[in-house]
Amino acid sequence: MPANSTLSKPDFPAAVPHAILTLVRPYKGVTLRQDLEVLSVRPDAILAQACGGHILGAPAGTRVHLYSPNTAHKYVARLAEYDDRTGVLLLTEISRLEWDWKERLSDRVQPGAPLYGTLHYGRWTLRVCLEDISVKGAGVLVHRSSETGNSLRTGVSVWVEFDLPDGFGRLSLRAAVAYLRPVGATLSRVGLRFSSGPIQTRLLERYTSHRRQEILDELARSSLRPSAHKEAFELYF
Predict the structure, then answer these.
(1) What local confidence, expressed as pLDDT, does residue 131 receive?
(2) Percent of the chain topping pLDDT 70
(3) Which domain holds residue 145?
(4) 34, exposed or middle or buried, with CB in 10 Å at 0-12, 13-18, 19+?
(5) Residue 76 is part of a domain; what is its CATH number?
(6) CA distances from 60 to 8, 64, 168, 225 (A)
(7) Residues 86, 158: one domain?
(8) Number of domains into which the chain is organized
(9) For residue 192, which of 237, 145, 126, 236 has the smallest C-alpha distance?
(10) Is the pTM of this model over 0.90?
């Protein structure tokens, strides 16, 4: 199937009435999952019921992933409508993912506010902005000019330091550059794979667990507005 092709019933055998699908979406680095019961299926849409009455704080228009144990393929869809009173939702623009989707070994959390630190490489010291972090690694942003000028490349060993917020203390550990990817015209995202000792590992575990709970609490406090266009359900079903 070509990328962005429309879902058809035979292509997604799990999408049948009463089947259970799992909806996945990232939120500030945390991977959120929601089980859905399929209510009805059309070639271009699925009407489903959120099990437990939640939908992970996803507003209409959010792109989400879908999978089922009954099919090896994974899909991307758009949450077109959601009725927060009934938990009924409408998924459209469903297409098969054309790349391998691998689960992360651990959740990465985004800081609550911009967090800057330093990355030491050889005799160079680079100012970096932390995008997300887990016990195993982190993603940081650097200016492209700094990266190219200092020959930062995949596989090199670096030293990274951050003063973590909320009184968690100073993170200081060795890491390896896992990848470099351009972000816009001037920045690069650098993926770091940590080589942390027991003390720094415990610090990472405490901070990421604390931040993850903050993110989940934020979702719990946020209330979804009732859908203003309930007629969309009738348009498809």
Answers:
(1) 95
(2) 79
(3) 115-196
(4) buried
(5) 2.30.110.10
(6) 22, 11, 36, 10
(7) no
(8) 2
(9) 126
(10) no
